[in-house]
Structures are given as structure tokens and as C-alpha cells.
């Protein structure tokens, strides 16, 4: 396996817990969100064009995510001050967590860290209310993966279907 290859945690794995800064003075733990589905959206960098488009899209789709009972969390290796400026500039209404120090520790746990760039893959995880990954997807870094896969996975959870046995397109 080369240093550039990553292996995202697959459906059926227990999602590794973590606590990361959401603001300069507030932390958020994955375990705080237990009891409802969680979407983890790892992305490479706040101010890149594709990342900006992706996060703005998720902000627009946020009412649908919430209607399906899910909590959305963005994660990158940028710091909290960078996240605060980016979220304010883009009008984002969901937390952006700073996987900043130790750099990329949470991205590593999820198998999506890019060590040569010091960033994460553009990776999505849908975690069920019990903390089990039910869907994961790694998009090419230069492509916005959209929201369809996330919505399909959340709808599968809401319908009590096992997304690990279904093809999610």
C-alpha cells in the first residue's frame, strides 16, 4: 500500500469516538450525538473551491438531513479560527470540527488521512444511532460527491433497511 492510498472504514464497523474543537472554546464529541444518525463529512480544506461548494450544498440540504433525524458534522485539518471565518463567510449552520492537533488524528482513525498533503480525503460516513457506520464513501478529492448518497443512506436507516446489504448510488 502506498502512502497515498487510504482505506476508509467500511459499513458495519463501529465508528471511532472522538472529541474535537468546534469553536475556540467548545468541544464536540461523537458520543454526544449518540441516539441519532450522524453524517461525518471529511473534506480537505476550508477555502478550496470544491470544499466550499460541497459545504454550501450540505448547508442547503441541512433541512432534509434534519428531517431524517441526522446531525451533520464537517471535519478538516484546518484550525478553529479558519473554520470560524469559513463558516461565517459561507453562512454554514452546522459544526466544522478542527482535526488540527495532532494533525489528522481523527482522519487517520477513519482511514482517510492524506499524509503527503496534511489533509483528509473527501470522505463521507453515515453513522447510525448506536454508533455503527452504515455507509461510507470516498470521492476523488477534486469532485463534489453531492448529497444523494447521504440521503439514500439516511432513508435506508429511517426505513430500517440494512444499507450494508444494498447498493447505494
Automatic annotation (TrEMBL):
It is an enzyme of class 1 (oxidoreductase). Monomer. Signal peptide: none annotated. Gene3D superfamilies: Glutaredoxin. Residues 9-159 form the Thioredoxin domain. PROSITE patterns: THIOREDOXIN_2 (PS51352). Thiol-specific peroxidase that catalyzes the reduction of hydrogen peroxide and organic hydroperoxides to water and alcohols, respectively. Plays a role in cell protection against oxidative stress by detoxifying peroxides and as sensor of hydrogen peroxide-mediated signaling events. It catalyses: a hydroperoxide + [thioredoxin]-dithiol = an alcohol + [thioredoxin]-disulfide + H2O. It comes from the Bacteria. Pfam families: AhpC-TSA. Keywords: Antioxidant, Disulfide bond, Oxidoreductase, Peroxidase, Redox-active center. It comes from Ancylobacter radicis. Its EC number is 1.11.1.24. Coiled coil: none annotated. Belongs to the peroxiredoxin family. BCP/PrxQ subfamily. This is thioredoxin-dependent peroxiredoxin.
Amino acid at each position: 500500500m502506498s502512502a497515498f492510498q487510504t482505506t476508509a472504514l467500511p459499513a458495519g464497523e463501529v465508528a471511532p469516538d472522538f472529541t474535537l474543537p468546534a469553536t475556540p472554546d467548545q468541544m464536540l464529541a461523537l458520543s454526544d450525538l449518540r441516539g441519532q444518525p450522524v453524517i461525518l463529512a471529511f473534506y480537505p480544506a476550508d477555502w478550496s473551491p470544491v470544499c466550499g461548494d460541497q459545504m454550501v450544498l450540505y448547508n442547503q440540504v441541512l433541512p432534509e438531513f434534519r428531517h431524517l433525524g441526522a446531525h451533520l458534522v464537517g471535519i478538516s485539518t484546518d484550525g478553529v479560527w479558519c473554520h470560524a471565518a469559513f463558516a461565517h463567510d459561507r453562512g454554514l449552520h452546522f459544526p466544522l470540527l478542527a482535526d488540527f492537533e495532532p494533525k489528522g488524528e481523527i482522519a487517520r482513525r477513519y482511514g482517510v488521512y492524506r499524509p503527503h498533503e496534511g489533509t483528509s480525503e473527501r470522505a463521507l460516513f453515515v453513522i447510525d444511532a448506536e454508533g455503527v457506520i452504515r455507509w461510507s464513501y470516498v470521492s476523488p478529492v477534486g469532485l463534489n460527491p453531492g448529497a444523494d448518497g447521504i440521503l439514500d443512506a439516511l432513508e435506508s436507516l429511517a426505513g430500517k433497511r440494512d444499507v450494508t446489504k444494498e447498493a447505494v448510488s
